[in-house]
Amino acid sequence: MRAWPATLAVALCAFAAACISTTRLDTSGLSFSQDPLIGKVVWNDLITDDLAAVRAFYSGLFGWTYDDAGSRHGHKYVLARAGNAYVGGILEVDDRADGKPLSRWLPYVSVDDVDAAVQRTKSEGGRVAVPPTKVNLGRVAAIIDPEGAVIGLARSRIGDPDETSTAPALGRIVWTELLANNPQQAAKFYAAVVGYEPLTAARRGGEYTWLTHRGTRRAGLFENPSSEAEPVWLTFFAVDDPAASAERVQTLGGRVVLPPSPTLRDNTIAVVTDPTGAILVLQKFPT
């Protein structure tokens, strides 16, 4: 984890660079809430060590197109679109010195006050990967929870993308879920830091916790099923056929970690990685 703060600092700098001018950020495919949507994932960045490879992969898998958002300290940053709506950003960073994989999706969750949330993070036993940083569209930071999962925090000055902007559609992000070793402690941590109101219910395969705010389900929390896997925030993408999409992942240079099966949420998801090792979940849509 020692390399992550530096990597995340680069990511936030690139995100800031992309937000320097609202004229460079085409918001025609977005509409914004007048009130903060606390707890909602409002942006996602893919951090990767091979920009060309992931551009080809996600274009082939989801049909994405890209807008060049320049570079920061020599690190290229592009914005990905599904149709006319932005899906997220892709940042190319240098390989880690220790050779360990670094590619992953990083969600940013809306909070009431980034600086206060960072202070709550430290009080609850988490760490600050990147301190609060001012960008033209607001303020952002990145934290590491007590189990090591990384997430971004954001407070936008122009409002959060509303439910219309983020409505489920093929090729777009439709859900975010934390795999935690101790779901009860994780729920307590994020309730304190973000303001979530956890709601736990029994489901096939074990208990599942929805991280809600004012009655709206914003993210999920599930017990990590593998002792070998690190706790991580998973990003779900809508596809019409998880099995066919998983096969396409392999032809595009990715890897299938868990194919669809009756025991894996009734054949509705597949867990895969892109060519650089970033994990993602293919979610059947409509369900």
TrEMBL record:
Keywords: Signal. This is Glyoxalase. The keyword Nucleotide-binding does not apply. Residues 1-16 form the signal peptide. Gene3D superfamilies: 2,3-Dihydroxybiphenyl 1,2-Dioxygenase, domain 1 (3.10.180.10). Residues 40-156, 172-285 form the VOC domain. InterPro entries: Anthracycline_SecMetBiosynth, Glyas_Bleomycin-R_OHBP_Dase, Glyas_Fos-R_dOase_dom, VOC_core. It comes from the Bacteria. It holds the Pfam family Glyoxalase.
